Amino acid sequence: MRSWLEPFSPEFSSVIEKGLAGCGKNQRKVAVFDADGTLWDGDIGEAFLRWLIAARKLRNVDYYQDIYAEYEAMVEVDRVRAYAHACQLMAGLPLPEVQDWSAEYAYSWPNYRPAMRDLALGLRSVGVETWIVSASNHWTVNEAGPRAGIPRDCCLGIRTEVVDQVLTDRLVLPVTCSQGKVDAIRKHICAKPLFAFGDSMGDFEMLCLARNGLVVQQHGHLRSELLRHADEREWPVHVF
User: Fold this and answer.
1) What local confidence, expressed as pLDDT, does residue 27 receive?
2) Nearest Cα to 114, choosing from 39, 201, 216, 26?
């Protein structure tokens, strides 16, 4: 067994080995990874939003309101809309500052999973393109990617249009959550993934798109609905 597969369950490793073995020598091979809960524990996009609020970096908000509580309430109603809103809250911020803050935040983020980093690097070592497709904001996940084994600029996250180096509130479509992840893969990567890795129902459509769906879970935070689909579709599961 390849050394970078040793930390994973036999079923998980076997699907990857068989997937690689079934590819032609010159066939394009792509792996797509969800970020939060998959490449690392926790949600870096939400954590970054909380930091922006606490540091009063946001420009167009009412700090007399509980901005983060309002976001959480939106999540309970419509996750796609809520995740897009979290990105839109950054309207008015200079892009260079967002990139710098994101780089600093990614450097200090303590929750990277070494086994997932080694998996991403291992796949690249055998000719597989690796991409992040995330419902967190693009700029923060793009800076975290290299620390999780994914090259910078191989990230599809939620983003807004940038005018004169300033973020606007106009979303760049598709919004990379649920079906939007599939739409973004088709638009920007232009290939059916050989592997997709995800941890929640927000990744379900992406997992279905790939030739091989693989599910990552965390002890104490198992997602029963996704695990039911994994069982039905024979997607292997690895629990950290």
Assistant:
1) 92
2) 39
Q: Where are the beta strands (DSSP E) in 88-209?
A: 129-137, 155-158, 160-163, 166-171, 195-198
Q: Give residues with Cβ within 8 angstroms of 198, minimum separation 6.
A: 33, 34, 38, 204, 206, 207, 213, 214, 215, 216, 226
What is the total count of domains within the chain? 1
Q: What's the whole-model pTM score?
A: 0.96
- 3-class DSSP state of 57: coil
The per-residue pLDDT for 67 is: 97
CATH number at residue 115: 3.40.50.1000
Domain residue limits at 69? 3-239
Task: Find the radius of gyration of the CA atoms of the chain.
Answer: 18
| CA distance readout (Å), 160 to 22, 144, 172, 232 | 39, 19, 5, 37
**Mean pLDDT of successive 10-residue segments in the chain (240 residues)?**
95 97 91 98 98 97 96 97 98 98 98 98 98 98 98 97 98 98 98 98 98 96 96 97
